Amino acid sequence: MAKKTVADISVKGRKVLMRCDFNVPLDDQCNITSDDRIVKALPTIKNILDRGGAVILMSHLGRPAGERDDKLSLAPVARRLSELLGLEVVFAGDCVGEDVRAKAKALKSGDCMLLENLRFHKEETIKDKAAKEDAQLRQAKDDFAKQLADLADIYVDDAFGTAHRDNASMYTVPQMMKGKPRVIGFLIEKELKFLGDTVSNPEKPFVAILGGAKVSDKIRVIENLLDKVDRLLIGGAMAYTFFKAEGRAVGKSLCEDDFLDKATGLLERAKDVGCEMVLPVDTVVAKEFQWHGLPARENTAKMAVSHKIVSGNIDADWQGMDIGPKTRKLFAKKLSDAKTIVWNGPMGVFEMPPFDQGTKAVALAVAEATDKGARSVIGGGDSASAVEKLDLQDRISHISTGGGASLEFLEGKKFVCLEILDEK
Ligand code: 3PG
Ligand code: MG
After folding, report:
1. Residue 214 designated active-site
2. Residue 381 annotated to the active site
3. Ligand 1 surroundings by CB, under 6 angstroms
4. Distance (Å, rounded) from C-alpha 202 to C-alpha 225?
5. pLDDT tens digits for 289-313?
6. Residue 352, phi then psi, degrees to nearest 5
7. pLDDT, position 299
8. How many CB atoms are closer than 10 A to CB 356?
9. What secondary structure, in 3-state letters, does 139-191 show?
């Protein structure tokens, strides 16, 4: 059944506690380097304010160790939000406590307040499994959640990027607010619709592209997609585990020896279910140098000096860094007639040119297929930033705001914090 959204409830004169994912990238001066996640929360926030509600926003930022860390304050987000909304967002110096309660109480219709980073309190990230087994942890998580829950009349969850977590603000707070409206916002609604429709009702051919460093990270995604997709293109370092499983030499490339059997099993299962698994046919390899005394980044810059393209085996001392030019063409061809595309994970070490060429070529091929009418969905994280770097975001149907969350969605997992919210 579909979840109730904020559009289904009356907010006039009421206080709305809204969980967002304002986990934005910051530079070392604490400047926001991409406000994408803030911008994408605006439709829900504005909708509530325009209809006479008052909004209390809450989020995490980074992974502080359960205590205050000024570098991870949400103050820059409050400033950016004030600019984007054109109103003064009240910023609370904490997320719980007397001052927060007083500020929340004083809010009038159309007012917006942002609480400080939830993860400055260790209770926020207590896992529910741990809380079930330990009464003290249960009490701590519940007490913290209760303080948040008591601030408002309505709960809205619009934090798709955090939807795979059972943090107190996502899971315990809505449970504490039982009897009051508990709904999703427009961002989560859109993410669920795009990701859900794409996987459950794809127009064929359906092509998935998976990359990134580890097969182990993507096994469940591959297993879940194998009998849904027509083709599965594998790039990134995870391809080398498949190479080795096929009996090819991988030199010094990243390779998960513990997963060779699993990789063989996946290749076999793909054959059984009629899914075409496409592995790279050539690889850009680099030689590893030991430049003692140089920082790691300069080390790898030196590696770029000595690189070449190989097909077949990768010699000892050489390391796979990207898919080669023939593979880029092959992958583009396999995408050219696609009607549905899902992409998660870069094809190579894309943050280090010239090993960004494979990821760029795939991004372009996805955009071109989309121009021709394909529906394309890109999981957040690295593939999303590659697309943004190339300024191709307008030629992709949907770029998820969730990295880990979109991956877990593609694994077919259920999000417990969404399951407990109100249904239509
Ligand atoms: C993310 O950026 O992936 C989300 O904000 C979740 O953050 P987390 O992985 O630290 O829970
Ligand atoms: Mg993450």
Report:
1. yes
2. yes
3. 21, 23, 63, 161-162, 165, 403-404
4. 11
5. 544 444 555 555 555 558 899 999 9
6. -125, 90
7. 53
8. 21
9. HHHHHHHHHHHCCCCEEEECCHHHCCCCCHHHHHHHHHCCCCCEEECHHHHHH
> What is the β-pairing status of strands 398-399 and 375-378?
parallel
**pLDDT on residue 285:** 95
Q: Does the pLDDT of residue 222 top 50, yes or no?
A: yes
In the reported structure, the alpha carbon of residue 416 is separated from the centroid of ligand 1 by a whole-number distance in angstroms of 16
Contact 48, 111 (CB under 8 A): no
At 60, list the tokens: 């995490």
pLDDT value at residue 291: 46
Which ligand 1 atom minimizes the distance to the CA of 405? 3
Q: Catalytic: 404?
A: yes
Q: pLDDT tens across 115-173, in order? A: 999 999 999 999 999 999 999 999 999 999 999 999 999 999 999 999 999 999 999 99
Q: Residue 154 corresponds to which amino acid?
A: I
Ligand 1 mean position to 165 CA, how many Å?
Answer: 8
Write down the catalytic residue from 37, 228, 244, 360.
Answer: 37
Nearest atom in ligand 1 to the alpha carbon of residue 161 is 4
Distance 403 CA to ligand 2 centre (A): 6
Provide DSSP, 231-279. EEEE-STHHHHHHHHTT--BTTS---GGGHHHHHHHHHHHHHHT-EEE-
Ligand closest to Cα of 62 equals: 1
State the catalytic residue, choosing from 214, 248, 269, 395. 214
Residue-level pLDDT at 379: 87
